[in-house]
Structure formats: C-alpha cells, structure tokens
Amino acid sequence: xxxxxxxxxxxxxxxxxxxxxxxVTLKLKENLNNEVQGEILGVIKGIKDNxxxxxxxxxxxxxxxARARGFSIASVAVFNGVNEMEGxxxxxxxxxxxxxxxxxxxxxxxxxxxxxxxxxxxxxxNL
Length: 127
Known about the structure:
It comes from Gossypium darwinii (Darwin's cotton). The protein contains 3 helices and 8 strands; from the N terminus they run βββαββααβββ. It has helices at about 35-50, 80-85, 90-100, and strands spanning about 15, 20-25, 25-30, 55-60, 75-80, 105-110, 110-115, 125.
C-alpha cells in the first residue's frame, strides 16, 4: 500500500530526525464532497495545536487511490521520540472529541507508528 499527497508543510519541509517517532494514517467513505474532505483535513491540522508532543504535522488528499487501496486522506505526525508519542495519549478526551467529528465519514483507519532509526551517515531526513 502506498499513499501519495501534496504536503502542506508549515512553513518548512517535514523533518524526521533520528530517533523521532511518526504516526501515519484515513480511509474515507466513497463519494464525499470536497467540503467534507476539507473539514476532515482541518480537524487533522488542528490536532498539532492541541496535542502535546507533536512537532510537525502534514496531511492531504491522496492522488493515487489505486495504489492506496481506497485510502483517500493521509497524515504524518512527527514527535521527538517514542516517549512524546506515547505522552500524546494524555490528551485522550480531546482526541476522542475530534474522532467523533469525523467518524461518520470514515470507512477505515490504519495507524502506523514508526521510529526513525539512528544513522551514522546523516542526522536527519526530509520528506
């Protein structure tokens, strides 16, 4: 599975330092209009301001749905490390409220947690 989208970086390219942790995600129901998709993207972007530990976030509409098995929106949240990612769960009430806002539009969700490995050849990666 692959998800491709135009990143809406704010204002710098997404940076993935060694040992940072990332969380990737959304499969929307078919035939949702652009207004609904915009609302969902707005909810995702707003998470950074209300969930501690997120250093950067990007999201967007998938432009290669055939490769993504129907997943139409993707996001990447970057944390300084695993502890920060796990600590973000302290905002469970806020996150659940945001999930309720978009739940009726979702057909499925995949969440992948990943830790960027240490590398002796470079100190960071950019997306």
